[in-house]
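Input.
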Amino acid sequence: MLSYDFGFYLVLGFVAQLIDGALGMAYGLIATSALLASGASPAIASASVHAAECVTSGLAGASHAWNRNVAWDLVKWLAPAGVAGGIVGAFILTELPENAVKVFVVVYLAGMTLLIARRILTGNAGEIGFIGIVPIGVAGGFLDAIGGGGWGPMVNSTLIARGESARHSIGSVSVCEFFVTMAISVTFLFSLDLSRYGTVVLGLIIGGALAAPLAGWFSRVLPQPVLMSMVALIVGGLALYNFIQLGSA
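Output.
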Protein backbone atom coordinates (compact mmCIF):
# COMPACT_ATOMS: atom_id res chain seq x y z
CA MET A 1 0.00 0.00 0.00
CA LEU A 2 1.26 3.45 -0.96
CA SER A 3 2.29 5.59 1.98
CA TYR A 4 1.24 9.25 2.10
CA ASP A 5 4.86 10.40 1.85
CA PHE A 6 5.61 8.23 -1.17
CA GLY A 7 2.41 9.36 -2.91
CA PHE A 8 3.28 13.00 -2.22
CA TYR A 9 6.73 12.68 -3.80
CA LEU A 10 5.31 10.74 -6.74
CA VAL A 11 2.86 13.59 -7.47
CA LEU A 12 5.61 16.14 -6.86
CA GLY A 13 7.86 14.37 -9.36
CA PHE A 14 5.08 14.21 -11.97
CA VAL A 15 4.14 17.89 -11.71
CA ALA A 16 7.74 19.11 -11.56
CA GLN A 17 8.78 17.03 -14.57
CA LEU A 18 5.72 17.99 -16.62
CA ILE A 19 6.61 21.69 -16.22
CA ASP A 20 10.34 21.11 -16.61
CA GLY A 21 9.94 18.88 -19.66
CA ALA A 22 7.73 21.32 -21.55
CA LEU A 23 9.73 24.46 -20.70
CA GLY A 24 13.17 23.05 -19.92
CA MET A 25 13.24 24.39 -16.37
CA ALA A 26 11.79 24.44 -12.82
CA TYR A 27 12.16 20.77 -11.80
CA GLY A 28 15.04 21.54 -9.46
CA LEU A 29 13.36 24.53 -7.85
CA ILE A 30 10.06 22.73 -7.20
CA ALA A 31 11.56 19.47 -5.90
CA THR A 32 14.40 21.07 -3.94
CA SER A 33 12.08 23.57 -2.27
CA ALA A 34 9.83 20.70 -1.10
CA LEU A 35 12.79 18.79 0.35
CA LEU A 36 14.19 21.85 2.12
CA ALA A 37 10.74 22.52 3.60
CA SER A 38 10.72 18.94 4.94
CA GLY A 39 13.97 19.57 6.81
CA ALA A 40 16.63 18.20 4.45
CA SER A 41 19.96 20.01 4.26
CA PRO A 42 20.81 21.92 1.03
CA ALA A 43 23.43 19.32 0.07
CA ILE A 44 21.07 16.33 0.65
CA ALA A 45 18.19 18.11 -1.13
CA SER A 46 20.34 18.88 -4.16
CA ALA A 47 21.81 15.36 -4.24
CA SER A 48 18.37 13.68 -3.97
CA VAL A 49 16.90 15.80 -6.75
CA HIS A 50 19.84 15.13 -9.04
CA ALA A 51 19.68 11.40 -8.33
CA ALA A 52 16.03 11.38 -9.47
CA GLU A 53 16.83 13.57 -12.48
CA CYS A 54 19.32 10.99 -13.76
CA VAL A 55 16.28 9.01 -14.90
CA THR A 56 13.70 11.71 -15.62
CA SER A 57 16.05 13.99 -17.58
CA GLY A 58 17.13 11.06 -19.74
CA LEU A 59 13.52 10.25 -20.60
CA ALA A 60 12.68 13.90 -21.24
CA GLY A 61 15.75 14.30 -23.46
CA ALA A 62 14.77 11.20 -25.45
CA SER A 63 11.26 12.61 -25.90
CA HIS A 64 12.67 15.88 -27.26
CA ALA A 65 15.01 13.99 -29.60
CA TRP A 66 12.08 11.89 -30.87
CA ASN A 67 10.10 15.07 -31.57
CA ARG A 68 13.09 16.68 -33.35
CA ASN A 69 13.45 19.52 -30.86
CA VAL A 70 17.23 19.10 -30.48
CA ALA A 71 19.99 21.14 -32.17
CA TRP A 72 22.90 18.69 -31.93
CA ASP A 73 25.53 21.28 -32.89
CA LEU A 74 24.49 23.17 -29.77
CA VAL A 75 24.51 20.04 -27.60
CA LYS A 76 28.11 19.08 -28.49
CA TRP A 77 29.40 22.33 -26.93
CA LEU A 78 26.84 22.85 -24.19
CA ALA A 79 26.89 19.38 -22.60
CA PRO A 80 30.65 19.16 -21.81
CA ALA A 81 30.65 22.73 -20.50
CA GLY A 82 27.68 22.00 -18.23
CA VAL A 83 29.30 18.83 -16.93
CA ALA A 84 32.49 20.71 -16.02
CA GLY A 85 30.56 23.46 -14.23
CA GLY A 86 28.38 20.94 -12.41
CA ILE A 87 31.31 18.92 -11.06
CA VAL A 88 33.01 22.05 -9.73
CA GLY A 89 29.76 23.26 -8.15
CA ALA A 90 29.07 19.91 -6.46
CA PHE A 91 32.53 19.82 -4.91
CA ILE A 92 32.29 23.30 -3.37
CA LEU A 93 28.56 23.37 -2.55
CA THR A 94 29.07 23.85 1.18
CA GLU A 95 31.80 26.48 0.82
CA LEU A 96 29.88 29.26 -0.95
CA PRO A 97 28.00 32.13 0.75
CA GLU A 98 24.38 31.39 -0.10
CA ASN A 99 23.15 35.00 -0.16
CA ALA A 100 25.86 36.12 -2.57
CA VAL A 101 24.82 33.41 -5.02
CA LYS A 102 21.14 34.33 -4.68
CA VAL A 103 21.84 38.01 -5.39
CA PHE A 104 23.60 37.06 -8.61
CA VAL A 105 20.76 34.71 -9.62
CA VAL A 106 18.09 37.37 -8.98
CA VAL A 107 19.88 40.01 -11.04
CA TYR A 108 20.72 37.61 -13.88
CA LEU A 109 17.27 36.05 -14.20
CA ALA A 110 15.59 39.45 -14.04
CA GLY A 111 17.82 40.67 -16.86
CA MET A 112 17.11 37.60 -19.00
CA THR A 113 13.36 38.04 -18.40
CA LEU A 114 13.53 41.58 -19.76
CA LEU A 115 15.53 40.48 -22.80
CA ILE A 116 13.09 37.66 -23.62
CA ALA A 117 10.16 40.07 -23.20
CA ARG A 118 11.92 42.49 -25.56
CA ARG A 119 12.35 39.73 -28.13
CA ILE A 120 8.67 38.76 -27.88
CA LEU A 121 7.53 42.37 -28.35
CA THR A 122 10.00 43.47 -31.04
CA GLY A 123 11.14 40.24 -32.68
CA ASN A 124 14.79 41.16 -32.03
CA ALA A 125 17.09 38.81 -30.15
CA GLY A 126 18.81 41.54 -28.19
CA GLU A 127 22.52 42.28 -27.94
CA ILE A 128 24.01 39.38 -25.96
CA GLY A 129 25.20 37.29 -28.91
CA PHE A 130 28.74 37.81 -27.67
CA ILE A 131 28.07 35.41 -24.78
CA GLY A 132 29.49 32.08 -25.92
CA ILE A 133 27.87 28.67 -25.54
CA VAL A 134 30.66 27.28 -23.34
CA PRO A 135 30.47 30.04 -20.66
CA ILE A 136 26.68 29.64 -20.59
CA GLY A 137 27.04 25.89 -20.03
CA VAL A 138 29.71 26.19 -17.33
CA ALA A 139 27.70 28.80 -15.40
CA GLY A 140 24.48 26.81 -15.73
CA GLY A 141 26.05 23.56 -14.51
CA PHE A 142 27.76 25.31 -11.61
CA LEU A 143 24.58 27.02 -10.38
CA ASP A 144 22.55 23.84 -10.87
CA ALA A 145 24.85 21.92 -8.54
CA ILE A 146 25.01 24.50 -5.76
CA GLY A 147 21.29 25.26 -5.80
CA GLY A 148 19.66 21.91 -6.59
CA GLY A 149 18.30 23.50 -9.76
CA GLY A 150 19.16 26.32 -12.11
CA TRP A 151 20.41 24.66 -15.28
CA GLY A 152 17.18 25.22 -17.20
CA PRO A 153 16.41 28.81 -16.14
CA MET A 154 19.98 30.05 -16.56
CA VAL A 155 20.77 28.31 -19.84
CA ASN A 156 17.38 28.42 -21.58
CA SER A 157 16.75 32.06 -20.75
CA THR A 158 20.19 33.07 -22.07
CA LEU A 159 19.93 31.01 -25.27
CA ILE A 160 16.45 32.31 -26.07
CA ALA A 161 17.46 35.89 -25.25
CA ARG A 162 20.45 35.64 -27.61
CA GLY A 163 18.28 34.45 -30.50
CA GLU A 164 17.92 30.66 -30.35
CA SER A 165 14.58 29.06 -31.21
CA ALA A 166 12.59 28.44 -28.02
CA ARG A 167 11.68 24.92 -29.14
CA HIS A 168 15.25 23.89 -30.01
CA SER A 169 16.72 25.63 -26.99
CA ILE A 170 14.39 23.73 -24.64
CA GLY A 171 15.03 20.41 -26.40
CA SER A 172 18.81 20.82 -26.52
CA VAL A 173 19.05 22.00 -22.92
CA SER A 174 16.94 19.02 -21.82
CA VAL A 175 19.28 16.56 -23.56
CA CYS A 176 22.34 18.24 -22.01
CA GLU A 177 20.67 18.18 -18.60
CA PHE A 178 20.97 14.39 -18.51
CA PHE A 179 24.77 14.54 -18.76
CA VAL A 180 25.04 17.44 -16.32
CA THR A 181 22.82 15.66 -13.80
CA MET A 182 24.78 12.41 -14.08
CA ALA A 183 28.06 14.22 -13.45
CA ILE A 184 26.69 16.08 -10.42
CA SER A 185 25.10 12.93 -8.97
CA VAL A 186 28.29 10.86 -9.30
CA THR A 187 30.21 13.66 -7.57
CA PHE A 188 27.69 13.74 -4.71
CA LEU A 189 27.88 9.96 -4.27
CA PHE A 190 31.49 10.26 -3.15
CA SER A 191 30.60 12.49 -0.21
CA LEU A 192 26.97 11.97 0.83
CA ASP A 193 24.80 9.13 2.17
CA LEU A 194 21.45 9.13 0.35
CA SER A 195 20.20 5.82 1.76
CA ARG A 196 17.80 7.57 4.19
CA TYR A 197 16.16 9.40 1.27
CA GLY A 198 15.46 6.37 -0.91
CA THR A 199 11.67 6.85 -0.69
CA VAL A 200 11.98 10.46 -1.79
CA VAL A 201 14.23 9.64 -4.74
CA LEU A 202 12.07 6.68 -5.86
CA GLY A 203 8.87 8.75 -5.68
CA LEU A 204 10.44 11.56 -7.70
CA ILE A 205 11.74 9.08 -10.28
CA ILE A 206 8.41 7.29 -10.84
CA GLY A 207 6.38 10.50 -10.96
CA GLY A 208 8.88 12.14 -13.29
CA ALA A 209 9.07 9.07 -15.52
CA LEU A 210 5.30 9.18 -16.05
CA ALA A 211 5.43 12.84 -17.13
CA ALA A 212 8.70 12.85 -19.12
CA PRO A 213 7.37 11.34 -22.40
CA LEU A 214 4.98 14.29 -22.74
CA ALA A 215 7.86 16.80 -22.68
CA GLY A 216 8.89 16.77 -26.32
CA TRP A 217 5.33 16.75 -27.59
CA PHE A 218 4.37 19.90 -25.67
CA SER A 219 7.45 21.79 -26.92
CA ARG A 220 6.77 20.72 -30.51
CA VAL A 221 3.09 21.65 -30.68
CA LEU A 222 3.08 24.91 -28.70
CA PRO A 223 3.65 28.06 -30.84
CA GLN A 224 7.04 29.76 -30.39
CA PRO A 225 5.60 33.03 -28.97
CA VAL A 226 3.66 31.00 -26.39
CA LEU A 227 6.77 29.02 -25.43
CA MET A 228 8.84 32.20 -25.09
CA SER A 229 6.13 33.87 -23.02
CA MET A 230 5.90 30.87 -20.69
CA VAL A 231 9.68 30.77 -20.31
CA ALA A 232 9.73 34.50 -19.50
CA LEU A 233 7.01 34.03 -16.87
CA ILE A 234 8.82 31.11 -15.22
CA VAL A 235 12.20 32.86 -15.25
CA GLY A 236 10.68 36.06 -13.89
CA GLY A 237 8.89 34.06 -11.22
CA LEU A 238 12.16 32.37 -10.23
CA ALA A 239 13.87 35.76 -9.96
CA LEU A 240 11.04 36.98 -7.71
CA TYR A 241 11.20 33.79 -5.63
CA ASN A 242 14.92 34.20 -5.02
CA PHE A 243 14.41 37.88 -4.18
CA ILE A 244 11.80 36.96 -1.57
CA GLN A 245 14.13 34.31 -0.15
CA LEU A 246 16.82 36.96 0.20
CA GLY A 247 14.44 39.25 2.09
CA SER A 248 13.45 36.51 4.54
CA ALA A 249 17.03 35.34 5.18
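The CA atoms of residues 32 and 45 lie 6 Å apart.
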